[in-house]
Design a protein that fits this description.
single chain; Ccc1_fam
């Protein structure tokens, strides 16, 4: 196992493999949007289910409230994610344009910025000047260098629409799962809630496992952490519904 893994790493670092990887276009990452939408969707609908059960509402009320929140919150979250990504892209574009103007108006000042940036990285003397000359020869490379090194911004393009669509789809698909037991009229209210609880717990754990695979984290630990966070949010919703029923007589 160790030998095959080492061989795989060696192959990934072969000059030709490195060349293909570095020249390949940057892919827009949608996994974080899917994870965010899935977790929030499951928390949202199961929180409604927990609150309704704690308050003593019927299954039909829990189902209606759950689907209403699923659609409204999912759309709201998708729009918010779209606006957030769009704002990031506009900020990057603005900084990029500003750096282009600075290079045109004060090229020596911008060269000095490059010089000081790479001096901090350990370059000095003729090597430092050669680095400055090479970077400043290509305006695109020059601007991208200033974006990443001076401003700490990424240079790859963002996709607000794709991020919003991914968030909305994950929110709906995962968020719908805890509501499915409430469509089974043969189950009692307690059985519906326990089934919904089991499904929600499974969703939280699976999302945590997916996150661990993508970001190379411990699988069980990541799954349990996501499960605990989702369970805490759902527990607060249940307690709120229960206390509202006990204190104010809300419910059936």
């Amino acid at each position: 196992m160790k030998k095959s893994r080492y061989t795989s790493i060696e192959e990934e670092h072969h000059p030709e493999a490195i060349r293909r990887r570095l020249h390949a276009p940057n892919k827009v990452q949608t996994v974080p949007d899917a994870i965010l939408g899935g977790i929030d969707g499951c928390v949202t609908t199961f929180a409604v289910v927990s609150g309704a059960f704690g308050a003593g509402f019927s299954a039909s009320v829990a189902l209606v409230l759950g689907f209403a929140n699923l659609l409204a919150d999912g759309f709201s979250m998708a729009v918010s994610n779209y606006e957030s990504i769009q704002a990031q892209q506009e900020h990057i574009d603005g900084v990029r344009e500003s750096e282009r103007r600075h290079i045109e108006q004060v090229p020596e000042g911008e060269r000095e910025e490059v010089r000081q940036i790479f001096r901090q990285k350990g370059f000095d003397g003729d090597m430092l000047e050669r680095v400055v000359d090479i970077i400043s020869q290509d305006p695109t490379v020059w601007v991208d260098t200033m974006l990443t090194e001076e401003h700490g911004l990424q240079t790859q393009a963002l996709s607000p629409l794709r991020s919003a669509a991914t968030t909305f789809a994950a929110f709906l698909i995962v968020g719908m799962m805890p509501l499915l037991p409430y469509t089974l009229a043969a189950l009692s209210a307690t059985q519906q809630f326990l089934a919904s609880l089991t499904v929600a717990a499974l969703m939280f754990f699976l999302i945590g496992m997916l996150k661990s695979v993508v970001y190379h984290q411990p699988v069980v630990q990541s799954g349990l952490r996501t499960l605990l966070m989702g369970g805490a949010a759902s527990g607060l919703a249940f307690a709120t519904g229960y206390l509202a029923h006990a204190w104010f007589g809300v419910g059936i």
